[in-house]
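Hello,

Our lab assistant flagged a job as stuck in the queue for most of the afternoon. It eventually completed. Since we weren't sure the result was trustworthy after the delay, we are filing this so someone can double-check. Below is the sequence as submitted and the structure that was eventually returned. Let us know if re-running is recommended.
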Amino acid sequence: MEEAHATESLIVNISSPSHAPHRFAVKVSRQTTIHELKELIVTRLDTKPAVVSAADQRLIFGGRILNDKDTLNHIFDKVSLTFS
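-- returned structure --
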């Protein structure tokens, strides 16, 4: 069953209170790493005039800061997700 999940895509909702847009969604593979997700987020933020790098970001889920090397599959493996 885990192998089937690995090929699925997820829509991840991002909230960024300090940058515009404040809320947006990205569709990514479950095999996407947190670092890759951060790089994608950089391309979506309107950061003018300040530049925000992936290294400057802190992604938090479930009350903890996520590790750049972890995949979304690893993080969401034990979480009940809603599929629509």
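-- support follow-up --
The delay was a queue issue, not a problem with the job. The result is valid. The chain has a mean pLDDT of 82. The chain is about 25% helix and 20% strand.
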